[in-house]
Amino acid sequence: MFERFTKDARAVVEGALGHAQGEGARSVDAEHLLLAVLDREGSRASFALSALGLAERREPVRRDVEEARRRAGLTRADTDALAGLGIDVSEIVARVEEAHGVGALAMSGAGKGAGRPDGAARRGGRRPGFGRTAKKVLEQSLRLAVGRGDRHIGDEHLLLALTVLPGAPAEVLADAGVTHESVTRVLYG
């Protein structure tokens, strides 16, 4: 499938790997792909994000993504549903982080230094593989490209996939006014 990726889409995947490695994650997740899309400049996805007014709001979106990762990728709907059962996710996160370090509940299973006796993030060694959520984004981007009759998968297809799949990335983007419909409108009229 990667042979069908454009230069910009490959850069997003490499950027996501970089984000995952930088935090010592065991796998690349959808949130890493979103962070890498936010890093891009001069591409179709960055054009769409700028047209939707996200250029000057990227940092708050990054913070929202990181906060979602601290909650193990739970959306607000998830945390509200758990609250209805008497489970306070914020309290659980605080207790786990108190015992195991900030980011201990990150979906990929490792925050900075989580699980390491010296508290250091994993360096070198194996590159993280793709987690379930990242694989879903990549698969959905292929479906979206094929559905549009596009021969290649661009970073815009990755952005569209992030907006359409349920989870924290779609929620964070929607809160910033970036939805599947709005991105489609900007990209394709």
Summarize this structure as a short list of keywords or feature phrases:
single chain; 189 residues; mainly alpha; Double Clp-N motif; two-stranded parallel sheet; 10 helices; 2 strands; 59% helix; Clp_N_dom_sf; Peptidase
Description:
By secondary structure, this protein is mainly α. It has one domain: Orthogonal Bundle (Double Clp-N motif). It is built from 10 helices and 2 strands; from the N terminus they run αβαααααβαααα. Strands 1-2 form a two-stranded parallel ribbon. α3 crosses α8 (155-164), α7 (132-148) crosses α8 and α8 runs antiparallel to α10 (180-188). The longest helix has 17 residues, at 132-148. Residues 108-123 have low confidence and may be disordered. Residues 110-132 are annotated as: Disordered. Keywords: Repeat.
